[in-house]
Specification:
Spore Coat Polysaccharide Biosynthesis Protein SpsA, Chain A, 8 strands, alpha/beta, 9 helices
Length: 211
């Protein structure tokens, strides 16, 4: 079947609705990486929970994959939900050797959010990951590339897909993931965009946490 792996750093505001959105027929694994809030207590009502001290999202995903019982893995951000069509599509895709993602949109239907989502969704057409909050792949492809690179703190999703495509077919779904726009609410679109460009080109600084 399918295993959902969700890294969570102090996500008490979002983790419950994310887990409730995932049908119980799927395995759910939450990796609390460095949590100091109630994320663990909330998550264990709905999922298997692993606690680690280190705040490293790639390591959290890799540890979750080790625990997964199924051959199809879905790495989901703690503030991201999948549409009903996306969940149904995963069931149909689970027997294919693929690595991919969904289109992205934000939880609030504002003009700025729609515009930014449109821009983001251009990149996967050229097989560039669009940070939609979700990556899916076979356990086979994951094992072949030895998971996510734990030494980089951003761009790890694109880097993983780039390597995994050597062992699995890339798939970009027309269905949507729905993620929080909290970063833009906090910092604004322009500041967030320039931070991403600057750090992608000249740095390896982690994104500021928004809780």
């Amino acid at each position: 079947m399918i295993s959902f792996i969700i890294p969570a750093y102090n996500e008490e505001k979002y983790i419950e609705r994310t887990l409730i959105n995932i049908p119980n027929r799927f395995e759910k694994i939450v990796v609390c990486n460095g949590c100091t809030d109630q994320t663990n207590n909330i998550a264990k009502k709905y999922a298997r929970v692993l606690n680690v001290n280190e705040k490293n999202v790639s390591k959290a995903r890799n540890l979750g994959a080790v625990l997964a019982k199924n051959n199809f893995l879905v790495f989901l951000d703690a503030d991201t939900k999948l549409s009903t069509n996306a969940l149904n599509e995963l069931t149909k895709l689970k027997d294919n050797n693929i690595v991919g993602t969904f289109k992205a949109k934000f939880n609030k239907n504002t003009f700025s959010n729609r515009l930014y989502s449109t821009i983001k969704n251009i990149f996967p057409l050229f097989e560039l990951h669009n940070s939609s909050g979700v990556i899916f792949c076979t356990k086979f492809a994951f094992d072949k590339v030895k998971g996510f690179n734990e030494k980089i703190v951003k761009g790890e999703n694109h880097e993983f897909i780039k390597r995994a495509k050597k062992y699995a077919k890339y798939y970009f779904s027309k269905n949507y993931s729905i993620t929080s726009d909290r970063r833009f609410e906090k910092f604004g679109y322009i500041r967030t965009l320039f931070f991403w460009i600057k750090e992608y080109l000249i740095g390896n600084k982690d994104y500021p946490s928004i809780r």
